[in-house]
Amino acid sequence: MSTANILIGEILGTMMLILLGDGVVANVLLGKTKGNSSGWIVITTAWAMAVFVGAFVAAPISGAHLNPAVTLGLAVAGVTPWGQVPVYFVGEFIGAFLGAILVFLAYFPHWAQTSDPGLKLAVFSTGPAIRSTAWNLICEIIGTFALMFGILMIKPATLMMSGATFGMGALGIIPVAFLVWAIGMSLGGPTGYAINPARDLGPRIIHAILPIPGKGGSDWGYSWIPVVGPLVGAVIASLVFLAIVPKV
Questions:
Q1: pLDDT band, residue 155 (cuts 50/70/90)
Q2: Which of 57, 64, 65, 244 is deepest in the core (most CB within 10 A)?
Q3: Backbone phi and psi for residue 164, each to the nearest 5 degrees, phi listed first
Q4: Residues 24, 46: Cα–Cα separation, whole Å
Q5: Burial class (CB in 10 A: 0-12, 13-18, 19+), 155
Q6: Would you say the pTM of this structure is higher than 0.85?
Q7: CB contact at 8 A, 152 and 145
Q8: For residue 191, what is the enclosing H or E element?
Q9: Domain spanning 3-247: which CATH class is it, in words?
């Protein structure tokens, strides 16, 4: 896979992921939107769909990592060459930047209609329900472990006909979307389930840069947790997978 393919695929896929994922948070949290106060189930469902859309956009081009933690985990598992890891990272963060900017533009009139700066930050990045450094970090590690281990255990969707095997295209991405949906519904309450360093840090940087009315701070003191936690969780999941895969 060429460097250009990796960059283009990850930029486009991660951009769509953030546009639709952060977009649903904006719809639920910002003032005077059609979806205002529609709740956690709407957010987790749309984030799962955002993963599906981002993945089927990027899959034919770059393999659709969309997440530095997944890229690192796949490298540890021996699936992705280590030399490609920085290229994936760059594409994922550029895509996250672009997606966050598009959300800002799509909801432009609504920023001024929202008085709480915390809600504006929540559109772009995650934050803890109860602030506890150790437990917030553990929650992100566990959530990303579930994501990475699930991805490694999912087999490609195929169809057998007349002795030939056919790939099922985007249908193979559906289990990953369901996995993300389950993580959000089950483990998302404590920290907002970043489980993706680019998904959190990229838009957080955009939040800090953009001229959002009354936006407040970007909570940089917490920002390392949704970066380090997912990376650690993905590595642990890959090591566990490598330990058991001969038995599977």
A1: confident
A2: 65
A3: -105, 150
A4: 6
A5: exposed
A6: yes
A7: no
A8: none
A9: mainly alpha
38, 30 contact by CB (below 8 A): no
CA dihedral 182, 19, 202, 29 (to 10 degrees): -70
Task: Evaluate the CA torsion angle 104, 21, 234, 83 in order and state its sign.
Answer: negative
**Around 201, how many Cα atoms within 13 Å sit in the side-chain half-sphere?**
22
Judge whether 138 and 239 are in contact, CB under 8 Å: no
Give domain limits for the chain.
Answer: 3-247
Nearest C-alpha neighbor of 147 from the set 191, 193, 103, 104: 193
* Closest to 102 in 3D by CA, of 29, 190, 14, 35: 14
Query: How far apart, in whole angstroms, are the C-alpha atoms of residue 104 and residue 116?
Result: 16
> How far apart (Å, rounded) are the C-alpha atoms in residues 229 and 138?
7
- If one compares 1 and 26, the residue with the highest pLDDT of the two is 26
Task: Fill in the amino acid letter for 59.
Answer: A
pLDDT at position 20 is: 98
- The pair of three-digit structure tokens given for residue 184, joined into one six-digit string: 């959000």
Of 229, 47, 83, 78, the closest CA to residue 152 belongs to 78
157: tokens are 């969707």
